[in-house]
Design brief:
The protein has about 270 residues and is α/β, with parallel strands linked by helices. It folds into two domains: about 100 residues, Rossmann fold (3-Layer(aba) Sandwich); about 130 residues, NAD(P)-binding Rossmann-like Domain (Rossmann fold, 3-Layer(aba) Sandwich). It has eleven helices and twelve strands. Helix 7 links the parallel strand 8 and strand 9. The longest helix is centred in the C-terminal third of the chain and has 16 residues. The protein is globular and about 50 Å long. It starts with 6 loop residues before the first strand and ends in a 5-residue tail after the last helix. The model has no long low-confidence stretch (mean pLDDT about 95).
């Protein structure tokens, strides 16, 4: 049984860029829930201790980079989807004081793809990255029909480990330009563009008719999405995924429909948005 949260937090490092406090607090105000959603910058070595203290406060919240995979082992229980993804981005406290972990990134990614493409894709998907975000992408893609994935990561050990977990990965490469060949959709699940203007793969390497999905989000769009759109690619950044995973998390915490329109309006009308 879920305990109604007495505290709501975002755990990450860094967290200063996150829009989650803006739209979650807007949702809380709209629903008349007397809580404030706060972002906590937690260094990697401090995560387990911080979560333990939060459990004592009957807290719930979200987890972002770089803690999603580490959070799996910290949780007392995990939903089947979090187990499959091997990553936790949403958590809450049960009546025994244990932390329960879930993964709403999977549903968020599905929503992002549908919004960008108008429908779910078929064919080859190039996935750049092999961390917790990439695992969530694969957990979504394996539920779609007619898709197979080429997976790229700089670290070959991590690349092989993730590919072994998901049969939908039919090819692995150690060169991002090679990964995108023949792809109908290219997904960036790396941190490229999060705090810099680096592109995960050069625009000129993309097939001319492929779509571009960036899990990173930036005010005004990421550099990669903006460059791809200028070249005629269908392209979308991670904002729809962020809002949807947050809405799904809100519904896990409180058992009521999330006010998605309110969440979107708070972000698009924010002074810095």
């Amino acid at each position: 049984m879920i305990v109604r949260p007495r505290r709501l937090v975002l755990l990450g490092h860094p967290v200063g860029h996150s829009l989650s406090p803006i739209f979650q607090n807007a949702a809380l105000r709209h629903a008349g829930i007397p809580l404030v959603y706060e972002a906590l910058d937690i260094a990697v070595p401090d995560l387990a201790h911080a979560v333990g203290l939060l459990a004592e406060d009957a807290a719930a919240g979200n987890v972002t980079v770089p803690h999603k995979e580490s959070m799996v082992a910290i949780c007392a229980e995990r939903t089947p989807l979090a187990e499959r993804a091997g990553a936790v981005n949403t958590f809450w406290t049960d009546e025994s004081g244990g932390i329960i972990g879930d993964n709403t990134d999977v549903g968020g990614f599905d929503a992002l793809v549908r919004e960008t493409l108008g429908a779910l894709p078929k064919g080859r998907i190039a996935l750049l990255g092999a961390g917790g975000a990439a695992a969530g992408v694969l957990a979504a893609v394996e539920q779609w029909s007619g898709c197979e994935v080429t997976l790229y990561n700089r670290t070959t050990t991590r690349l092989a480990r993730l590919a072994a977990r998901f049969p939908v990965v039919t090819r692995t490469v150690d060169d991002p330009a090679a990964a995108v060949r023949d792809a109908q959709v290219v997904v960036n699940a790396t941190t490229a563009g999060l705090e810099d203007d680096l592109l995960p793969v050069p625009i000129e390497a993309l097939p001319f008719d492929c779509a571009v999905i960036d899990l990173v989000y930036r005010v005004g769009g990421t550099p990669w999405v903006r460059a791809a759109a200028r070249c005629g690619h269908r392209a979308g950044d991670g904002l729809p995924m962020l809002i949807e995973q947050g809405a799904l998390a809100f519904e896990r915490w409180f058992g009521i429909p999330a006010p998605r329109d309110v969440m979107w309006d708070s972000v698009t009308m924010a002074p810095d948005a």
